[in-house]
Design goal:
heterodimer; A: mainly beta; 17-stranded mixed sheet; 3 helices; B: Rossmann fold; 4-stranded antiparallel sheet
Amino acid sequence: MRMMFQELPEYLFELKNKVVFFNGDYSPEMSDLKLQDLEIKQSRTDAINLLHFNQESQIHEMAVSVVVRSGCKAIINEIHFSIDHHSEHHSLTQILVENGAKLTHHQVIAPYQGKKNHKAHVEVFEQGQYQSVLLDMGGNDIRVEETIELKGPHANNQIDGLIRLKNQERSEHIIQVNHLAPETTSQQKYKTMVDNESRAHFTGKIYIAKVAQKSDSALMNKNLLLAKKSHVLSLPQLEIFADDVKCSHGSTTGQLNQEELFYLEARGIPKQQAQEMLLSGYSSEIINKITDADLLKILTPLSRTHL
Amino acid sequence: MLEIKNLHAKIDDKEILRGINLKVNAGEVHAIMGPNGSGKSTLSKILAGHPAYEKTEGEVLYQINGKYKSIDELEPSQRAKEGIFLGFQYPVEIPGVSNISFLMTAFNELCEAQGVETMKEEEFRKYLKPKLMSLDMNESFLERSVNEGFSGGEKKKNEILQMMVLNPRLSLLDETDSGLDVDALRIVAQGVNTLKSKRNATILVTHYQRLLNYIQPDFVHILYQGKIVKSGDKNLALEVEEKGYDWITKQ
């Protein structure tokens, strides 16, 4: 199943002339990179783009594996999209970040038709860094499960997630971070906006093993309810077996701040537009973490309506 | 320009304003003074259309296109476009929204409402430059989130900057002097004085007489328990400074 750029949604055209893999299959128009090059042996400054898509009504499964070798740096943009609401897509991305390596991982679930089930499994070794930004722009049935294992001393994980749902959309995010070595660090922040009758579920768990002394971890889930019938379920959890760690978790759920809204309105900005400004302000904290300019170009038209 | 007749207003079923009468003409500066809890802030909030405050009786008439009209039905943003400006006592911090995009959105909304051409960012920055300088504000303020992490004085200067950008007909400045040191107070007052003209009016809401040393009021009103209990010229403010509010409220 090979896809050409002409068949893609317009917003993905920005990736033309970039390194792109479609459903694990290498795009022939692109440079000479092969799928096995996802074993990254040399640092790369340009992003590798992985596109997961479904073009027809069918159940599709795929797995991608990425290895970032010792000391190397790479950026991966992983974009999930589907334009067929009868489709079903199951994907698994396995990632190894070796000693001293750094992977910046941008995950985007573009407005999604059909069912999406994604799993990411990440292992980070000594001094390795895994930085991830996840944007979920909503779909009928989305489930994302991420497991991050910090396996070597000083391994670090940072995830910033943004989820915006509307209408009857459903989305579930489950994240587990396992601190399995001493002095490992992790920061997880998920921000959610639910409008209309949409529902978002978040389960975040930090596990700190007995050996993982002096680990430092924080988990935060912030939710904005934008309509009376919108719904959020937030389950932040800690499981700590070491006795010398710094660990925090929290969850807040609220509505748009009426004083902020009035302030903008009092300057002549109509209510609807003022709300959009506040929401984009709320999102920007996460979106600003994205470091790839091409990806930001793709997101600009989408973010007007979906972020 | 503004005529308030027998205005009663409440918040959360608590009556705060109990029959305010006030007439403000173009070119005038009015100071509204009064002890804490007298209803000063409520008056400015209700004029700007804050949704938490509810008018229960009376009329607020404002001159639009030469005619006095009730502003009851106007949304806060429509009032702003008609030239009513509220300088907040506690300017609100808005994380993630840059000051420049906030100012430019507000400015261009106004341009559109008035049927004049909007400005692109580059042009708008040039337009802002002298205003920033006059307020002794660094250009880096434009890149920061609205009021976030600003000091008390910086927030108040930012209010005056917004006022300069929107060039309102009726400015309601709610405790603009609070939280300002002497230097900042002088700069802020200068900003207000520069904007003063024959076509606009200013209402200064203040607890202390201090601000009135810098901005000369034509009229001073003392608000107490939701009513204007005494009006006079600037000497009334001096009298309050000397004797406190007691001599009026005990009458």
